[in-house]
Amino acid sequence: MIEKKKEQVMLEKIIAYIEKYSLIERGDGIVVGVSGGADSVCLLLILVELRKRFLLDLVVVHVHHGIRGKEADEDEEFVRNLASQLEIPFVVERRDVPAFARECGLSEEEAGRAVRYEIFEQVRKCYGFTKVAVAHNKNDCAETVLFHLFRGSGLTGISGISASREKVIRPLLCCSRDEIERFLAERGQLFRTDRTNFLEEYSRNKIRLRVLPYVAKEINDRAVEHIVGTAGMVSEAQEFIEKNVQIMYDKVVSMRNGIYFINADEFRAVDRIIQRGILYQVIVRLAKGKKDIEQKHVELVMELMNRSVGKEVMLPYDIVAVRSYDGIQVCKRECLVRSKQKKKWEFVEVKPGNTYLLEEIGYQISLELVKNEQGAMQIPKNDCTKWFDYDRINNVILVRSRQSGDYLEINDKRGRKKLKDYFIDKKIPRDVRDEIPLLTDGNHVMWIFGDRISERYKVSEMTKNILMVNIMEVKKNGR
Amino acid sequence: MIEKKKEQVMLEKIIAYIEKYSLIERGDGIVVGVSGGADSVCLLLILVELRKRFLLDLVVVHVHHGIRGKEADEDEEFVRNLASQLEIPFVVERRDVPAFARECGLSEEEAGRAVRYEIFEQVRKCYGFTKVAVAHNKNDCAETVLFHLFRGSGLTGISGISASREKVIRPLLCCSRDEIERFLAERGQLFRTDRTNFLEEYSRNKIRLRVLPYVAKEINDRAVEHIVGTAGMVSEAQEFIEKNVQIMYDKVVSMRNGIYFINADEFRAVDRIIQRGILYQVIVRLAKGKKDIEQKHVELVMELMNRSVGKEVMLPYDIVAVRSYDGIQVCKRECLVRSKQKKKWEFVEVKPGNTYLLEEIGYQISLELVKNEQGAMQIPKNDCTKWFDYDRINNVILVRSRQSGDYLEINDKRGRKKLKDYFIDKKIPRDVRDEIPLLTDGNHVMWIFGDRISERYKVSEMTKNILMVNIMEVKKNGR
């Protein structure tokens, strides 16, 4: 009876955890990843217990890594038999993980993980299921935290393992390895032991086999619990900071032609930790991923803010950050070269009924004149096509870069705004202002490409003739 | 020559660190705590090097702990001689740390630390100096992080040691223990070794002697560096969160008569991590300190938010949190008892020229009538004394609790606001609204005690007679 009760306590703890993080809903179909080890066998038994309560559909998936020969075959056989006893469909997938690891330049450990999650997801889709359950426990979480703490991977690294991520759920994350093994012992349930877990050549194994047992015995017997608790707080802190970074990002950063511009004034107004988060985002966007992007790269750009105009730092993936007059520009080196070669280009006159290829500025422009037939046409809402009231145009139409005296109307009260002030308000960095093509009627800017048109030319019910202008980006000439 | 260069590198690193965190300014007077161990001897030599650069005044302070008999005497002698060689004033203070530890219920380690900082501060004041320098290094920081991580002391615990705190500065925090010992070896400078640092009975020593060396050797040789780096990020994250907690605190929490009220709607609108910070603040304010206040107490109150009205949880120091209709009340148990006993009390008529002791509501009130002599008097700006335009009062003046139909004027446009709506806007919890004493003229509320007066009665240039009313809190009758 006492045995029964302990098992019940663990089950209730897991149910509470599932509910706290909404891991499972009634009617879920769950792919259960089962290696045959204690954790995943326990996970399977628990989900079988919960089957009725949550009306679950289950399928067991076992991945054969093509490592550890006969032992691995025996693992497969063990899981197949267990699934059959429990009357749950069984899927096995074989992969040559060592070969995959070599191909991708990953460790076998990393490659195995990538392969497993990929297979689980394939089976999930194939069965039309909703979730993938994996068997991480508290000890795994504590090990991960220490592993990252010792290797230096910042806040994200020490925020532990999360209860769920996309379709993947981890219902055993509230249990310790001891609890899991006691549960299996009480049930008399056998499990397989992966000998590689005991090889001390892996850092993770060293933490599991040496560091944590020593700490639990000699320093604090609830160390795992405490590490997991602190990781949870770090995770929440991290989420909060991330949210604030997203909020501030748009205020601080603007992007044009592949060049990210960080406005110095706006940047200084935010907290340092948010500054770092914003710079990290910019670099990651340019690098198209987090790989190889480290805190030290962020620091380099941070320091650049206090240096003089023209100073630059090199980052991975040929990314370069340059201190400009009013902030920092970050881009791929090729973009920088292009922008350094820029010069003021000549104007081009454009007329309705024609298409012009303006290679120098990288645009093709077409102009067409049509009668305004009430309600027959919808003004398109996109950045490439704009309509203008043709009869309000007083001069020849030019495509050109800015000139002094340029202005536009930005509200229907006919108030003029200097183009220069408009650029300043929009935080367009000085260096790129000359590069922005304009459609103009004398000094009146009809359209700032990629931005707004002047209110003056907006099509209304009174408009008789509509000038439809379409632009298309093309490869720049010789750049 | 190579020796000389390494030493120079370390010195430059320390100078950069001092400048980054503004640890030292020109002309500082610095108390240097020197135990005689490698770290503090190095600190002293470094500060001597920097003496000219920063125009420093130095004094060496050694604390004799009354532990370790002869060895401790030799330590004292060693530091005295070193100070004399360097021609720096030397102060020694003896304390019976074991006795102090027993008295305060602290470990000898904790007691020693408290005693040292106290003595350093005393000497600082006595010399009229500006700073106290202590010799923590990177390893100390990493050890502290692991110590707290294993014991579970949340984000603050793993944010490491800070470069400065009030008057205390830590210029060696950018150096590792190895660097420090190499520096001394190159100089041929001797130092004392505290044998208790090698006793494995202390958790900290276990981390220093066992855990970190194992990790550096087997997992990552720059582990100390990485732990310190991550701690710095946690510290910044913690600061950012703390700042946001302070910003939200006043929106979410109001306090009246020793009862903190947490408004449920406002509370739900903030992030969980900020919610926790706010609750922690409330509990710490009531507990008058952080001692014994743990994350689990915060969790108890968090959970209370989802429970039904009337549920309560007990916290340390006789603090109790109760779920009320519109939020949570947190207070000392005695306040709760008092507030449960409350009943609507009778009105009292008050007249100018008199003082009334209203024991039932815990106030003494005095009223005085004076002529308004232009410019002769300044309207006092405090919560205890208010002035009213006497000639605008139409009825007898009562002190009473609220009644239906009560209103006040909250702007000079003579718009009336229902008292009920005013209370709702100010987020005064329902339960306490009946308890707030009002000074009234019919249904017109002249003054909400502890809050505002009605615009209607404000003294202006036109006022002929001023009613000056003063209230003073007194002990409540029989409560």
- The radius of gyration of chain A is 31 Å
Assess the beta-strand content of chain A as a share of residues.
15-25%
Number of helices of chain A: 16
Most residues in contact, chain pair and counts? A-B, 43 and 43 residues
Q: What is the CATH topology classification name of the largest domain in chain A?
A: Rossmann fold
Description:
Chain A folds into 3 domains: 2-233, Rossmann fold, CATH 3.40.50; 257-340, 2-Layer Sandwich (Uridine Diphospho-n-acetylenolpyruvylglucosamine Reductase, domain 3), CATH 3.30.465; 348-473, no CATH class. In chain A, 43% of the residues lie in helices and 20% in strands. Chain A is built from 16 helices and 21 strands. In chain A, strand 10 (319-324) and strand 11 form a beta hairpin. The first copy, chain A, is elongated and about 90 Å long. The termini of chain A are far apart. The A-B interface holds A 145, 147, 149-155, 157-158, 203, 206-207, 210-211, 214-215, 218-220, 222-223, 225-227, 229-230, 233-234, 236-241, 243-244, 271-274, 295 and B 145, 147, 149-155, 157-158, 203, 206-207, 210-211, 214-215, 218-220, 222-223, 225-227, 229-230, 233-234, 236-241, 243-244, 271-274, 295. Chains A, B: InterPro entries: Lysidine-tRNA-synth_C, Rossmann-like_a/b/a_fold, TilS/TtcA_N, tRNA_Ile_lys_synt, tRNA_Ile_lys_synt_N.
What is the compact description of this entry?
Chains A, B: It comes from Velocimicrobium porci. Two copies of one chain form a homodimer. Chain A is an alpha+beta fold and 479 residues long.
